[in-house]
Amino acid sequence: MMHSILDNALLKAKLLTINKDSKIIFFSDLHKGDNSYADDFTHNMEIYQYAIRKYYDKKYTYIELGDGIELWENYTFEPIYKAHKSTFELLKLFYNDNRLYMIWGNHDMIFGDPITVEKMLYKVFPPKNIKQKERLFNLQYHESMLLQIENTDKTIFLIHGHQADWFNYRFWKVSRFFVRYFWKPLQKWFNVKDPTSPAKNYKNLIKVEQKLKDWIIKNNNQMVIAGHTHRPRFPDPGLLPYFNDGSCVHPNSIIGMEIENLEIAMVKWHFQSDANGNSHIVKTVLAGPQPLDLYL
C-alpha cells in the first residue's frame, strides 16, 4: 500500500534539473500558526527570517518540503498570514525571482488542490488587474519533486514523508479533526501529545522511517530527502541514502539541508553568545558537506 503511494508520487514528481552552480536550501515543518499558544513557529521566527534573508541574498533556491503552514489547528489561512506577514513577504522575494518551490505535507494537504490555493491567495492578495492575477496565481504546490543532475540519470526524490505514514496520508482529515477538537485543547491544559504525529510518537516515527527505507531499497537505493518526522537524518556515505531536514520548530533553532557545488550538508541556525555576552544568530554545520555522488 505505502509503496504504491510512494511510486505514484515519484511518477508525477515535478522535475528540476540542477548542476554545479545550483544552490538550494531545504526547510520543512514550520507549522506557521496564528501566533497563539499553539504556534510553535513563533519562537523561531526571528532565526528563520534571518536565515532565509541570507539565502535569498546568496542566490539560493528555496524548497519547502511540506507542513509550512499549520492548517490542522487553524481553520483558515488569513489569521496565519496576518501573524506572519513579514515571513510570507520574504518568501515572495524568492517567488518573484523564480527561486521558490513548495511541497505540501499532511498539515497543509489542502494545497494539493490548485483551486484552493487560488481562493486563499485571492482573499489575502486581491489582484488589481488581469496581469497581476496571472502572475500571483501562478504559485503551485507539488506533492513531490525530482532533482536531476544535469547530463546524468542521477536523481534525488523530494517528498514531505507522510506518504509512508498511511493514516496521515489516507485519513488526514480524521487526524485533523482530532487535532483541532481534542489534542489541541489537551495540549494546552494537560500537555497531552498527539499520538498520530510521528514527531510526538516515537513508535510511529520509527515505522515511518522504516517504510521509507524499505521503499528506497526496493527502488535501487533511490536518494530521498524528506521531512515529516522532525528528526534530522544525514547518513554516512555507503549507508542507505535517506535524508531528513528536521524542522523549524526545534527548541531555539531551525535545521535544514543545503546543496551547493553538488555537495549536501545539514545546517542549524541558532542564537550564540560572543565573548562579550552579546547574542547573535549563527549557522552551524551539523553534517557534511558530502559530494552527492557518494549517495547517487
Structure, explained:
The structure is a single chain. The chain has 296 residues and is an alpha/beta fold. The protein has one domain: Purple Acid Phosphatase, chain A, domain 2, CATH 3.60.21.10. 34% of the residues lie in helices and 24% in strands. It has helices at residues 2-11, 45-57, 78-83, 85-96, 114-124, 130-136, 166-170, 172-190, 202-218, and strands spanning 14-18, 23-27, 61-65, 100-103, 141-142, 144-149, 155-159, 223-226, 242-244, 253-260, 263-273, 279-291. It has a seven-stranded mixed β-sheet with strand order 5-4-3-2-10-11-12. Helix 2 (45-57) links the parallel strand 2 and strand 3. Helix 2 packs parallel to helix 4. The longest helix is centred in the middle third of the chain and has 19 residues, at 172-190.
Order of SSEs, N→C?
HEEHEHHEHHEEEHHHEEEEE
How many strands appear in the DSSP assignment?
12
Structural class: alpha/beta
Helix content: 25-40%
Query: What is the typical, i.e. mean, pLDDT?
Result: 82
Largest sheet: 7 strands, mixed
